[in-house]
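B., you asked whether I could sanity-check this one before it goes into the benchmark set. Here's the sequence:
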Amino acid sequence: MNRETSEHTDTTGAGRFEWRDLTQAAVFAGLLAALGLPGTLTLGPTGVPITLQTLGVMLAGSILGPRKGALAIALFALLAIAGLPILAGGRTGLVALSSPTAGFFVGWLPAVVVIGALTALMMPRYRVWVGILINIVGGMGVIYLFGTAGLMLRTDLSWWAALSTNGLYVPGDIAKAVVCAYVAAQVHRARPGLIPRRAKRADE
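And here's what the prediction gave me:
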């Protein structure tokens, strides 16, 4: 592999982050906090809130990829659990984790990894419609899965009843998936290399 082709390749196996990676993750952690400022809207009897912060999760995965996106979510979660009221509605991480909707918060980290990993597979060219599908799978499917499991553990809801609570949020979350894909396409067009290509083998 020559020097030129080694640039912008994935160094996932190294386990190290550059200062630029840490800065980008911190910026997205701040974005997540800012998206919580409008507060929440609660629908249905389970108290699952509608927030803009799931849009931030989608953006972190689709723009930063799995490693930096996960770092951004982990940083935000640690600050929230430490007591900062940065979750929508001024909640802290401990408040969120002690509520019946804890699974939705827990689902952010695996969701950003799934979105980031699937997005990385289609790089270096970001395609909007593929991005929308990826955001739906990761940003909705994964988070709904964890949220449903959390509701079942914390309430007396059956599997179907817990799963059905997500129906109220599907239209809004699809809209977030679409918005995220269009934003990500513009960002990747302006700043190629944010999600590095996979490193090639030495014999390639």
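One thing to flag: The longest strand covers residues 9-10. Otherwise nothing jumped out at me.
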